[in-house]
Amino acid sequence: MSTANGRKSIFITGAASGIGRQVALLFAGKGWFVGGFDVQEDLLAKLAGEIGAENCLVRRLDVTDRVDYAAAIAAFSAATGGRMDMLHNNAGIGKGGPFADQPFEDVLALVQVNFVGVLNGIHLAVPLLKATENSMCFTTSSSSATFGMPGIAVYSATKHAVKGLSEALSIEFKALGIRVADVLPGLIDTPIIPREAIGAASKEGMFRPIPPIEVAQAVWEAYHSDKLHWYVPPEIAALDRMATLEPEKTRDSLASGGILAFLETEGRDAG
C-alpha cells in the first residue's frame, strides 16, 4: 500500500473525473498525498497512473454505502498514519426534468448520493479530521444552492442542504479544530453537464462554461483561507445575495427568463 510518509493528505470523493480529478491532480502536484475514491474504477486507475502509485491511494467507493465508506476511511487512515488534512465531499450526480414527471427513484438517488453521501463522509471522517491540525471539511455545492432552480429542483435542494450543513458545521466544528467551507460552481464543463448544454451556453457572463481546473484552484485556495463560501465564477455571489434579499424578485425573474440580464449587471463586481 502507498503511504503518505508525513505529507499532507486529501480524501476526495468523485475523484475519477471532472472537478474531483482536477483537485486530485492539483493537490498531488503540490506534494500532497491523494486519496481518490469513485465508482468508476477504470478512470481511478488512469488517475493513479498519472499521479503515481506512491503518491495516492485509489479505491472504489459508493458514498451511499456507509459500511463501504467506513472501510475506505480506514484504508486512507492506514496510508496516512491516521491523519486527514482535507476531506473533499465532491461526489454527486445530476438528474433533472420537471419534478412532477421525474421518476421517484431518480429523486431518491439524488438525495442519497448528493446529500446522504456527504453526511456519511463527514460523520465518518470526523475522528481523522479532529486528529489533524488545521484540517478542513470541504464540500462541492452548486450555484443552484443560491435559489431553487426549475428543472433541477431536487438536485438544487440537495445542494441547498449541503450548503446549509456547511454553514452549521463551520460553527460546530470550531470546537473540534476543524475548518469548514464549500464551493458553489456555476456551469462547469464536466461529464455531469450534458454536452448539448455546454455547447449552447453563452461564452461570456456568469453562466459561461468554466473548466474544472478553476474549481480545483478554489479548493486549493480554500484550504489556505478562512472563507466559508467560494463562488466559481465569483459573479455567482450576486445571485446568492439577490436570492437572500429579494426572493420574490428572484422567483419572478427566473420565471420570466429575465434573471440573466439582471445578474450580468448586478454581478459584475461581485466577489
UniProtKB/TrEMBL annotation:
Q: Which key words tag this protein in UniProt? A: Oxidoreductase
One short Pfam name that applies is: adh_short
- Coiled-coil parts of chain: none
Look up the domain of life of the source.
Bacteria
The family database entries (NCBIfam families) matched by this protein are listed as: PRK08267.1
Family assignment from sequence similarity: Belongs to the short-chain dehydrogenases/reductases (SDR) family.
State the protein's name: Short-chain dehydrogenase
According to its UniProt entry, this protein's organism is Sandarakinorhabdus glacialis
